[in-house]
């Protein structure tokens, strides 16, 4: 597995990097099988250290976790615990999807924009939003079950994906009532 362990305005020593690799190798060995790469970023927010980890699995799914603590090792350990809980919860589903899928998840590219927040102070002269940033976003081709699992693994409130049973874009999202919603525009085209 490839590792990218960095610190934002923090010096990351060899001992911490070794600890991160050892712990993640152990977790991935138990639950994920064949991860491809991991990014771990340490930063500092006020008096706390923040650890954010993203692991890309060979199935095409991504697991993410984030934790804070007053000590840098404790921040990583909290992040690793969250990652382990996620992967333990989805181990059977990850294994089933991986065995059913002969090739990694296909990923398409799309543009993603960040729009300026509307402060509501005055009526805008035109209805065009102000674009603050433009990025490239990955849109995976997944089954609905895989999309729900990916959304939950990433801790995201919504996931846009290309449905593998059709050519259209679909959306899964967390509803306020705790259930998961699924938008399939192709289902209404008949």
TrEMBL record:
Key word Cytoplasm present: yes
UniProt keyword list: Cytoplasm, Translation regulation
Molecular-function annotations in GO: ribosomal small subunit binding
Main localization of the protein described in the UniProt heading: cytoplasm
Pfam families, alphabetized: Ribosom_S30AE_C, Ribosomal_S30AE
SUPFAM superfamilies for the chain: Ribosome binding protein Y (YfiA homologue)
Location relative to the cell: Cytoplasm
Protein's GO biological process: negative regulation of translational elongation
Recorded GO CC terms: cytosolic small ribosomal subunit
Keyword ATP-binding: no
Domain of life of the organism encoding this protein: Bacteria
Domain Sigma 54 modulation/S30EA ribosomal protein C-terminal: 128-181
Role description: Required for dimerization of active 70S ribosomes into 100S ribosomes in stationary phase; 100S ribosomes are translationally inactive and sometimes present during exponential growth.
Assembly and interaction partners: Associates exclusively with 100S ribosomes, which are dimers of 70S ribosomes. Interacts with 100S ribosomes.
Family: Belongs to the HPF/YfiA ribosome-associated protein family. Long HPF subfamily.
HAMAP family assigned to the protein according to its UniProt record, in alphabetical order: HPF (MF_00839)
Protein's UniProt name: Ribosome hibernation promoting factor
Protein's organism: Jannaschia aquimarina
Gene name of the record: yvyD
